[in-house]
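Lay summary. Proteins are chains of building blocks that fold into shapes, and those shapes determine what they do. In this project we predict the shape from the chain. Here is one chain we studied, written as its sequence of building blocks.
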Amino acid sequence: MEGNPRNRKDLLPLFDISKIDNNEKVIQRLLVKYFVKDMNEWENVNADLVITDPPFGIEFSGKNGNYHRNVNNVVDGYVEWKVTEYGEKIHQLLEVIKRNLKPDGQALIFSGWNHSNIIHNEILKFDGLTLRGKMYWIYNFAPVCRQRTSHNVYEIYWVTKGDRWTFNSRCNTHHCQQGEPNLSTLIFKRDYKVNMPKYPTRLPFGLIQCLLEHFSNEKDLVFDPLCGSGMVGVVSHILGRDFIMGDLNENGRIVFKHLLDYYHKKGLVKVQKLMRLWKMVGAEGIEPTTSSASRKRSPTELRAL
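And here is the predicted shape, written in a compact code that computers can read:
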């Protein structure tokens, strides 16, 4: 992806887990950054980066029988977009992004395969945002399909508001620490949380981390007007970014609260351990060590931690 990046950094430092305050007051302070509101109500956020995953437009609820999950844990209230209104909804989303970005801000818009052509066409004809490229997220799960191949790829549209933007050439995930740091294909497993309230859709920690470290800097403001579970906010906070976000579904805040609890009290140690292993594997053949002996871990083992 070529362009006129505002900043370039070879490698961002690992976050310092000691700086993450896991008390209830901090979690409550983060919860107020999740607003229950329509995306069209947002004005003048002045964000550096938007990351958002709009509804699919396929009568999706997250409780379909062909998805491998306990439907009793999936919260209600997911707001789907109708197929007949999908183009107009995407146009509205682009308007929201445009008026809430800084002049040198940018956005990453997720899309499933069903209506990616609509998103693509709406971006191309939209005045005020420029399509700079497209990435592909490959994940480990797809619904059971009996009459066609299962689809396990998301498209990510990268748009900018102006001619300058932030891009850091390396991140701390296996995307850059193993093999070449190439941003066209991102391979990240979904990180399922057992016995927790679930949102019908949720992006994995590692994928959001990869995007944040490439397309933003510490203290930048990250905005998600269709935030669902609030995972963009969780990862932004942990990586030292500010965030603000919203969704029409008030139950999304319940999932967001449980995710904050998880990553503050349980998940952070695991995440940092994994990040350090990725860094060691990517450093000129240095092998990660175990308590018993040094041995090289496979990418599959690392991603499973």
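What the prediction tells us: Residues 8-12, 281-305 have pLDDT under 50 and may be disordered.
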